[in-house]
Amino acid sequence: MVMLLSLLRTATSLTQIHQIHAQILIHGLPLQTHLIPKLIDLHSIDYARFVLDQTPSPTDFSWNSLIRAYTVHGSPQNSLFLYLKMLRSSTKPSNFTFPFVLKACSALGSVLEDMYCKCFRLDSARNFWDDMEFRDEVSWNSIISGYVQWGQVEKARDLFEEMPMRRNVVCWTAMINGYGKEGDFVEILSLFRQMLVSADEVQPNAATMVCLLSACSTLCNYEVGRFLSVFIDVNKIPLNTILVTALIDMYSKCGDVEKAWRIFDGVSCKNLPSWNAIITGCVQGGLLEEAIDLYRHMKAQSVKPNEITLVNVLSACAGLGALELGREVHLYLGRNGLDLNVILATALVDMYAKCGKIDDACLIFVKTSEKDVALWNAMILGLAYHGDGRDSLAVFSQMVRAGVQPNDVTFIGVLSACNHSGLVEEGRVQFSSMADKHGLSPKLEHYACMVDLLGRAGHLKEAYELVQNMLIPPDSIIWGALLSACRIHRNLELADKISETIMASQDPNIGFCILLSNIYASSGRWKDVARVRRQVKEKRIKKPSGCSWVEVDGVVHRFVVEDTTHLKSGEIYGTYEILVNHLKAEGLIPLFLAFGLMDEHLRRDIICQRYEALVSRPKAICQILILFWQVLMIWFEVFDTSPEPGTVKRELWRIKCSTPYREHFFIFIIDFGSQTPCHCSNQKSSLEGLKALGVFCKQLAGSIGCDSRVQ
Q1: pLDDT score for 612
Q2: pLDDT of residue 131
Q3: What is the helix (H) or strand (E) element at residue 396, kind and residue range?
Q4: What DSSP letter does each residue of 535-581 carry, written as one string?
Q5: Which residues form the signal peptide (predicted)?
Q6: Phi, psi values for residue 463, rounded to 5°
């Protein structure tokens, strides 16, 4: 027997273990339990379980070893089932059994909900813990961590306070993590302070700091997050990959992307979570181009993206209108066998809708079998964005029939659909149903949609009464929507009331000041125009720089007002001047621009709200199309008719540019938005001017060797 034990200790392969096991069985020696830890060391868990089942009276050490092995090797369910079998055996659990079982429960997560009902409940675990003759530090930490894992933080806190021994860093971290899951930031900071000054003399470790930084990220508490970052440096807490990722995530979500970027650049071995943290931070911070550049660099480094990466990249594509890259991500999903789950489907629907491909968005929506509220919302908002109000409302009806509870975002989409399509009565019904049927209180965004809908339809009195009766103070967007309706319907009396509110605010919006000046100028009230101009100067109100993007051959080009850094800026501004001069010749400059309310750059930016530069390959062409903020539409030229009152249309302006090297197709989405002809005060002149603009754009395309057409 001594010789077999010696051979067992020196065995290094399963073949040797099999031979030793055979000798044990032949000679009837009681050595089976010695085989189990050796088999576990060789990762032969199933064989170890077979030996345990064949052993008449296994020791508690054998049971504990196998229970722990199942958890470590990713089979926590088997750990629990083995524990239940142990309870039915003659061997009683020891002090070491419970921590292993608890770790298995933690690893199972939500799977436990069904299992608790059948065989293992938390109160049973507590009873077992209460019956333990001796509770060491590990046992206390395990039961506290278990309560935290199961969301019973207060019970965990009671045990935490009752601990008769020194509380170590594991225990403190478990409690901080528990309150972090509850979102109780005050208690998190209180525990952290107690930890630093307690008699336990415990120093936080990397895991503690990760829990604290995660709480700061969730609540976007930059000041505390920055303090924790300094604390890590001062106390020389070792920076592992998880802690570095938590720092990047905290700075990104708190808006300090520059600091997050510096930390990211300092990481020598960047893993997927760190890439995801910085990409997510860029997307949330509005640095969409940078997010896409990071994604491409990440792939070049042979780091394989996961669901989090792709969702953020699709969000960036949606914001930039980068359809080509969005399609590339979609194809990547199929090529790499990634399941199109509801999260990815939502991101794809949002991307395709915002890139003008509503049919593709609908196709993905229909193909997704399990739809959550976010996916329904994306489809409703996408259809609303495209002016398909009736279809958007139909999808909302399907959502309600499917038993999905709508939320605040849902009704933003529904009311936007009514607004964009001029569905006044439907808008009233849906707005009332928020509180009456669905128990939702309208927020500023919902009020803004309703005010805009009523105002554009000419119901200014009703819109103003709605604002007056709001349960929350109206913001500048709501006043701006009402002011815009006053301009459309020439209601100077109401405009005067609103102007007092807007100009009395601490930071008036420059757009509203311009709009107010338009209203006064169109009515010949030049003194009021001068007064608004004076107030703009006195309050030093500035217009933030506008920005636009265009994707060409998978590359996103970014253009900012007054920017001259683009390689083809000379050609861009040259063509820009040609178009502006032509517009002046056609008499399309609003009258108020003659009165020096703003500088030349601002004038041009108002005339031409955004411009897109098309950059070709060598010997190709550079074209610019100007999209008016007051464009009623190229619809007139396409169909030679006006849309029905209250409808909204979106059309594609497609230009085919032939070069010696290839043919280029550029597509521009002309959003006719809310400026439908039924709301225009000068429909005839707008129609003639837009026809002239369409003819000129064709002439310009022809003059530089392009075949242009409207589709």
Answers
A1: 35
A2: 62
A3: helix 389-401
A4: HHHHTT--PPPPEEEEEETTEEEEEETT---STTHHHHHHHHHHHHH
A5: 1-22
A6: -65, -45
Q: How far apart are CA 295 and CA 310, in angstroms?
A: 9
In tens, the pLDDT along 394-416 reads 999 999 999 999 999 999 999 99
Q: Do residues 315 and 283 lie in contact, with contact meaning Cβ atoms separated by under 8 Å? A: yes
User: Could you give the angle at which helices 600-607 and 569-585 cross, rounded to 10 degrees?
Assistant: 70
Find, among 358, 323, 364, 362, the residue nearest to 344 by Cα.
Answer: 364
Crossing angle of helices 373-385 and 342-354, in 10° steps, is: 10
Q: How far is residue 363's CA from residue 504's CA, in Å, rounded to a whole number? A: 49
3-state class of 76 per DSSP? helix
Per DSSP, the three-state class of 464 is helix
Structural domain boundaries in the chain: 480-538, 548-710
Q: Render pLDDT for 442-495 as a digit per residue (tens, 0 to 9).
A: 999 999 999 999 998 999 999 999 999 998 888 878 888 888 888 888 888 888
Q: If you average pLDDT over residues 140-151, what whole number do you get?
A: 79
Q: What is the 3-class SS of 585-642, one letter each residue?
A: HCCCCCHHHHHCCCCHHHHHHHHCCEEEEECCCCCCCCEEEEECCCCCCCHHHHHCCC
CB atoms near residue 186 (< 10 Å):
8
| Interval 631-646: pLDDT, tens | 333 333 333 334 443 3
Q: Look at the alpha carbons of 29, 34, 36, 41 in this order and tell me if their dihedral is positive or negative.
A: negative
Res 95: pLDDT: 66
Return phi, psi of residue 200, to 5°.
-70, -20
Q: Residue 505 — pLDDT band, cuts 50, 70, 90?
A: low
Cα dihedral 326, 327, 328, 329 sign: positive
